[in-house]
Amino acid sequence: MTATAGLRLVDIQKRFGATRALRGVSFDIAPGEIHALIGENGAGKSTLMKVLSGAHPADAGTMELGGRPYLPADPHDARMKGVAMIYQELNLALHLSVQENILLGAESASLGWIDRRQSRERARSALAQLGHESIALDRCAGAFSIAEQQVIEIARALLVKPQVLIMDEPTSSLTRADTEKLFATILRLRAQGVSIIYISHFLEECRQLCDRYTVLKDGETVGTGQMEAATLDHIVTLMTGREVTDLYPRSAHGRGAVVLDVKAVASEPRLKRASFQVHGGEIFGVAGLIGAGRTDLLRAIFSLDALAAGAVCIVGEGEAEETATPRRRWRQGLGFLSENRKEEGLMLNQSIADNLTLTKQDAFGRCGWINGRRQGQVAQGWVDALRVKCRDAGQRIGELSGGNQQKIAIARLLEHPARIFLLDEPTRGIDVGSKAQIYQLIGELAAAGKTVIVVSSYLPELLGLCDTIGVMCRGELAAIRPRADWTEAEIMRVATGSV
Amino acid sequence: MKSTLKHLLAKGGPFIGLILVIALFSLPTETREFFLTYHNFKIIFTQTVIVAIGAIAMTMIIVSGGIDLSAGSSIAFTSVVGALLIQREFGTIPTVILVLTAGAIIGLVNGTMIAALRMPPFIVTLGTMSMIRGAGKWRADNQTVNYEGSPINQWMTTADPAGYALPPGVWVAIGLATVTAVVLKNTVFGRHVFALGSNEATARLCGLPTVRLKIMIYALAGGFFGLAGLFQLSRLRQGDPTVAVGLELDIIAAVIIGGASLSGGVGTILGSMIGALIMAVLRNGSQQMGWPTYFQEIIIGLVIIVAVFLDRLRQGKQT
């Protein structure tokens, strides 16, 4: 293998106005290599990928693909030159068939007429290359699970025989089992000589899958090497520029009285039956595969979905009501953090202050008039306390990074203030530094006697953080035990129903 | 520094447009001496009143993530209601109250169907647009409703017998625009309107009474359309069920030129007022230049597209 095969970037720089997003990134990947690209949010990974996939031109530096200069004009050009990208958020036309989706933009046609036979053949062979011949070509893409949709999207990328495939957080919404299947697919591609750039916040996954790694920090390459020779601690230190000694700080917290009693609740369509009690000062984890009904459980408790059966009793708030509303739940001291910041959690084109205080804006003034200055001060207080990186509390929240957005979304519950926190995937898609901060915050809440219920797909997080863990399987809360009685393997055993 | 400049540009974009349009007609020698005069601007302002009042209401609706296509029909219908009431010798104050109520009831019905029955606002108001137009023609027996005379007739006259400098209608529009702008910016209701349009799921999650809020917005807007109907009546001095066809599109255009986003969460009353003025100045100026009406229509269409395009550029630079 010569040094010029594969993809090679030398000293790439990119500037947006006054911001130097990339200060000099060098990076290379050989054919048939899986290369982890690691870095905190804002380290420049996305910008680098946009440069690579032709969405932005680089200001300086050189790129070579297969020994020849590589200068993509736009994403389509990049794709034709052999660099394809799979984004974190899938880009499928859900109403079109699998075959139409795979061929989108590269239809087999003459004079505008689609050649059906050839189309089918090409779509089928792309799926076969991934080992997923079983996906029916004529069904609508929307009928498939997220994991299968991802396979369809990868098949689309393979259609033009890419030399380099970039995958951005491909496992963030996959279950453990689907993740393993995806890895098998990626290894197949590696065997076929495709170079894969793998971007993920899950370091364990990178370690399991990748051959080499490159760490970006503040727009620069700060380290690269063989995955086998590196320890996770070393990589985390490179990413953050500091030693992260204990990701899951244990705070001393005792268990108080029962504050929430969930009695055999069910909701359409997924949640079949869940019963549990939580106490003051308790961190209660909910594990399970995606689609097991974890989010549905939180939504039912918070009255975002109607109960089909059962009751939710909030101790000290009288009898359980048949029909409560989210508004009532906030008043009763519950707070809900959505797993989906963009679509549900935040108003992206509104200010930090308005997002933070949305549940209690009438508290900032009299007779319906808002005292904007007081509202701003309160918001600024949280911005400072949680070390949110922003201009000021008046900035549009959509301009912040994911980790900073998440801090504001949690601050909404803190400011309200809630005493029972329902947190759905509180650390999804955010950087290690913010994660550690959120873990610490959860610990402090418990120490202050608050109750926290955490739903997470990331088992080390639940095991590191929670006092009690309940595991859901097919819509039922199947087992509840103290943390000490769980291991990752045991959780997966219950979650997959292989009892 | 840079952010304040951006802020100024974002706020001032439509305003710059207005100045450009005024400049366009102030420069040519054939219109110079007639165009930039107090009297001509009095006419322009008076011609803007109906669209402006409609645009105040439409701004609220569009910011909340909705749309109301029935505005033009509502204005015609309420003008017929007003004429019928005057015909039956109701006093001015009862007439005004009843016409505003009629408008608010239409809005209430729209809002209830949209919020409680969860139907898309475009479809609901497309339906009511036709229904209300029909109802107006029915109540008016398919002809204009004439009456002897009413103080309402004086609201839109540029003769200015009482010495207000501008007709009462213009002052009412300015007052309402100011009040609504302050309410949208500084009250819980206003923030909730923005929250609803910016992300309805978040609004629901945060316990906002989304259904009640939507109904309130459409009902309030309906009252505004009723008021616009009264000014329509004042202008024609008769109730005409066939008037204001397509006016909702002018109103929506004013709001969009003013910088609001059809996907909700973005928009200002000031912008919408400037949007309404830009269109009125274009119409007035084109007439003075002797341009044919088809040419005016082409120009106004172009302005809408250019305004939205410039807005896109501005938004794009922010991210």
**Rough shape of chain A?**
globular
Number of strands of chain A: 21
Structural class assignment of chain A: alpha/beta
CATH architecture call of the largest domain in chain A:
3-Layer(aba) Sandwich
* Relative helix content of chain B: over 70%
Itemize the secondary structure elements and their pairings.
The complex is a heterodimer of chains A (499) and B (319).
Chain A lengths: L6 E10 L2 E11 L4 E5 L6 H8 L7 E6 L2 E2 L5 H7 L1 E4 L11 H6 L5 E2 L2 E2 L1 H14 L16 H13 L5 E5 L7 H16 L3 E5 L3 H7 L2 E6 L2 E7 L5 H9 L17 E10 L3 E9 L3 E6 L5 H8 L7 E6 L11 H6 L2 E4 L3 H5 L6 H5 L15 H14 L16 H14 L4 E5 L7 H16 L3 E5 L3 H7 L2 E6 L2 E7 L5 H8 L4
Parallel strand pairs in A: 3-10, 3-11, 6-9, 9-10, 15-19, 15-20, 17-18, 18-19
Antiparallel strand pairs in A: 1-2, 1-4, 4-5, 7-8, 11-12, 13-14, 13-16, 20-21
Chain B lengths: L1 H25 L2 H7 L2 H26 L7 H17 L4 H24 L5 H19 L28 H19 L1 H11 L1 H6 L4 H27 L10 H11 L11 H21 L3 H26 L1
Helix pairs in contact in B: 1-12, 1-13, 3-7, 3-8, 3-10, 3-11, 3-12, 4-5, 4-6, 4-10, 5-6, 5-10, 7-8, 8-10, 11-12, 11-13, 12-13
Describe it.
The complex is a heterodimer of chains A (499) and B (319). Chain A has helices at 45-52, 75-81, 98-103, 116-129, 146-158, 176-191, 203-209, 232-240, 294-301, 326-331, 341-345, 352-356, 372-385, 402-415, 432-447, 459-465, 488-495, and strands at residues 7-16, 19-29, 34-38, 60-65, 68-69, 83-86, 109-110, 113-114, 164-168, 195-199, 212-217, 220-226, 258-267, 271-279, 283-288, 309-314, 334-337, 420-424, 451-455, 468-473, 476-482. Chain A is α/β, with parallel strands linked by helices. The termini of chain A are far apart. Chain A contains 17 helices and 21 strands. Chain B has 13 helices and no strands. Chain B has helices spanning 2-26, 29-35, 38-63, 71-87, 92-115, 121-139, 168-186, 188-198, 200-205, 210-236, 247-257, 269-289, 293-318. Chain B is globular, with a radius of gyration of 20 Å. The A-B interface holds A 17-18, 304, 325-331, 336, 338, 343-350, 354-355, 358-359, 361-362, 365, 368-370, 372, 391, 396, 398-399, 412 and B 2-3, 186-192, 194-195, 198-199, 201-209, 265-266, 318-319.
